[in-house]
Specification:
It is built from 2 helices and 4 strands, in the order βββαβα. It is α+β, with helices and mostly antiparallel strands. It has one domain.
């Protein structure tokens, strides 16, 4: 079975490098090649390969994002 090299798009944490599947508490964007293909289509430029194979948002960044939205809405 191949492993996933999971990267958070907000904090670029690497402690989920080599996991068998995306954890349920992550927001999953999908395989990075899908995102790279969209970027390449949108910009017309070749996209350099990255160290990761899969993109998402980690639970820490999701919590941080919710706090920031709540703080902004309270103003």
């Amino acid at each position: 079975m191949s492993t996933i090299r999971l990267c958070c798009v907000e904090c670029d944490r690497r402690d989920y490098d080599g996991v068998p599947e995306v954890p349920t508490d992550w927001f999953d964007f999908g395989p990075s090649n899908v995102v790279d293909d969209l970027l390449q289509d949108a910009t017309g430029n070749d996209v350099a390969p990255h160290w990761y194979t899969h993109l998402g948002i980690c639970p820490d960044c999701m919590t941080k994002g919710k706090r920031e939205v709540t703080r902004f809405a309270a103003r």
